[in-house]
Design a protein that fits this description.
The complex is a heterodimer of chains A (245) and B (199).
Chain A lengths: L28 H4 L6 E2 L4 H4 L31 E10 L9 E5 L25 E5 L5 E7 L4 E3 L5 E3 L2 E6 L8 E7 L17 H5 L2 E2 L12 E4 L2 E3 L15
Chain B lengths: L19 H5 L1 H4 L22 E9 L10 E6 L19 E5 L6 E7 L4 E2 L5 E2 L3 E6 L7 E7 L23 E4 L4 E3 L2 E2 L9 E2 L1
Parallel strand pairs in B: 1-10, 1-11, 8-9
Antiparallel strand pairs in B: 1-4, 2-3, 2-7, 5-6, 7-8, 9-10
Classes of the chains: A mainly beta (245), B mainly beta (199).
The complex binds fe (iii) ion.
């Protein structure tokens, strides 16, 4: 990746590979999805640049959710897992030194949030958020516990599959992405109305992390692999002023 | 059959959900102890050049309700129109801020410096603006818009110029309220729906 690459325009987003903004199966979208079309334009420097975070903001335990809430004093309850993968862009280039943030419920499916009142108890040793920077090859990893499934108010009996929320910056504000990682084999994935907002089956599969025994540590933790692809940049050999601009 | 394209497909977005604050603004969720400070708490630090302004507003859903759970991010140039990371950028302007709608009132506040005009690749100038990205429960793909300013010349801005229905331009313009205050409300759906961008 060169600095030159970082100044190129972004490849327009293919909205067909993203969820439908309005989906009656996920009721809250019905009042929160725009009803008018988005205004589609080529990216400008505003979208092509973005915040860059240095190693200075990342603490040593920030990517260890088993220990970060207690500052290393006591481990969180739950099935210990490593979640790792790469952040790439659509052209296959690694996205180096980009901030990846995660948040999740505890092993019982309860979030440490003022608004979460689910019966499952809080784990005094688990906060539920973490962050890290990718390395120069785009690799990241987190040590955490497998979050529990939880019910949520939507249709009569909807449950979220086990999932970890991911926030990724990339190197341009126009690459900004929030998504969710699911776990291989979870039967709730196919019943989840939030998953079902994505109409492209292949795109759903890309959100399901496979068990990765090559990175599991014997007698310690299992591993799941989750790669993330951000928007890429468009090579511009012919720059024309767009019609009407 | 054809040759295979070697490009990858962008990972699908999923809603940030109701608990996005845990990961993005931990203090808001009650996890203040986890990091020394929230990331992007302010886009400027002491000594930032330019006029310090405050933008206040709400994010309204299709029923006219000011959402209590919206999380916003902003990205902007410094007072000279230069983004952090570019040559000659103001070192006191990161240009990035994260802020949440208040859990009780639904109102958000962004305190920053007024950005300068920003040059396009072809040399044309964009009017001063702040890029905004909104996520929340019920928003499946983060929504992008821009804040322009009522006390700036927006007439030739290349983005605003592309809005066919001229009254809708107003949805992207923060209203000067005297002094350093501006009002910018975002309407996700229905009457006065904000223009959202796909750029
Ligand atoms: Fe969740």
């Amino acid at each position: 990746m060169t600095d030159d690459y970082d100044t190129l325009p972004l490849i327009p987003r293919n909205r067909a590979v993203h969820p439908d903004p309005y989906d009656p199966g996920y009721k809250t979208t019905m009042t929160r999805a725009p009803s008018l079309p988005l205004l589609s334009l080529d990216s400008t420097v505003t979208e092509q640049t973005g915040p860059v975070f240095g190693h200075g903001v990342i603490g040593t335990l920030d990517n260890n959710l088993i220990l970060n809430w207690t500052k290393g004093e006591a481990p969180a309850v739950g099935e210990r897992i490593l979640v790792h993968g790469r952040v790439l862009d659509e052209t296959g280039r690694p996205v180096p030194e980009t901030l990846v943030e995660i948040w999740q419920a505890n092993a019982g499916g309860r979030y440490r949030h003022l608004k979460d009142t689910y019966f499952a108890p809080l784990d005094p040793n688990f906060g539920g958020c973490g962050r890290t920077l990718t390395d120069v090859q785009g690799h990241y990893q987190f040590l955490t516990i497998r979050p529990g499934a939880y019910p949520w108010p939507n249709r009569g009996n909807d449950w979220r599959p086990m999932h970890i929320h991911f926030s990724v910056f990339g190197r341009a504000f126009g690459q900004r992405l929030i998504t969710q990682m699911y776990f291989e084999g979870d039967p709730l994935i196919d019943r989840c109305p939030i998953v079902a907002t994505i109409k492209d089956r292949g795109q759903i599969e890309q959100l399901v992390a496979p068990l990765d025994m090559s990175r599991a540590k014997p007698m310690d933790f299992l591993a799941y692999k989750f790669d993330i692809v951000l928007r890429g940049r468009r090579q511009t050999f012919f720059e024309n002023r767009p019609e009407g601009m | 059959m054809t040759q295979k394209l070697t490009t990858l497909t962008e990972t699908a977005s999923q809603t940030a959900g109701p608990y996005v604050h845990i990961g993005c603004i931990p203090t808001f969720a009650g996890l203040g102890a986890i990091y020394p400070e929230d990331l992007g708490g302010s886009p400027i630090s002491e000594g930032a050049k330019g006029k310090v302004i405050t933008i206040t507003g709400s994010v309204y859903d299709g029923t006219g309700w000011a959402m209590r759970d919206a999380l916003l991010e902003s990205w902007q140039a410094d007072a000279s129109g230069i983004y952090a990371g570019q040559p000659n950028a103001d070192p006191a302007v990161t240009g990035f801020c994260r802020f949440a709608a208040d859990g009780t009132t639904g109102e958000f506040t962004l305190r920053t410096v007024k950005p300068g005009r920003v040059a396009m690749r072809d040399g044309r100038m964009q009017a001063p603006h702040i890029a905004i990205w909104i996520v929340a429960r019920g928003i499946n793909v983060g929504l992008s818009t821009r804040i322009y300013f009522s006390d700036e010349d927006n007439a030739t801005d290349p983005v605003l110029s592309r809005i066919e229905q001229r009254p809708r331009v107003e949805t992207m313009i923060a209203r000067a309220q005297g002094g350093e205050s501006y009002r910018f409300d975002i309407r996700l759906q229905g009457d006065g729906e904000t223009v959202f961008l796909d750029m």
